[in-house]
Write a structure and sequence with these properties.
Length: 109
């Protein structure tokens, strides 16, 4: 005879209230330990030396200028320069600048 309140093939498992409270209070409601046990701790890696030949910087650019820059990068890639990117194009442009020809109002444009 089948229990009408139970669905499934296995017999229902009933736990005593103190067993349930013990599991919940021990696993779910206690604060995490301050340090992970030694067996679960991640091994520490020695910090890799930072490269000295370049630095990552942040600059601001107008959206139109970024669009133009990205368009130029895409054209270079379409011409077969698959490693073209913003940084490479800016470095190339820096090599081409003649400071004698830079207008006085450069920051105002």
């Amino acid at each position: 005879m089948k229990n009408s309140n139970y669905r499934g093939n296995a017999a229902p498992v009933l736990l005593e209230e103190d067993e349930v409270q013990g599991v919940l209070s021990g696993a779910f409601y206690t604060p995490p330990p301050e340090e992970a046990p030694a067996s679960r701790a991640r091994p520490t890696r020695a910090a890799a030396p930072k490269p000295e030949h370049y630095r990552v910087i942040c600059i601001s650019m107008y959206n139109e200028d970024l669009g133009r820059l990205d368009g130029m990068v895409e054209k270079l890639k379409a011409r077969g320069l698959t490693k073209a990117n913003r940084s490479a194009l800016i470095r190339y442009a820096l090599e081409q600048v003649d400071l004698e020809k830079v207008p006085k109002g450069i920051g105002l444009a």
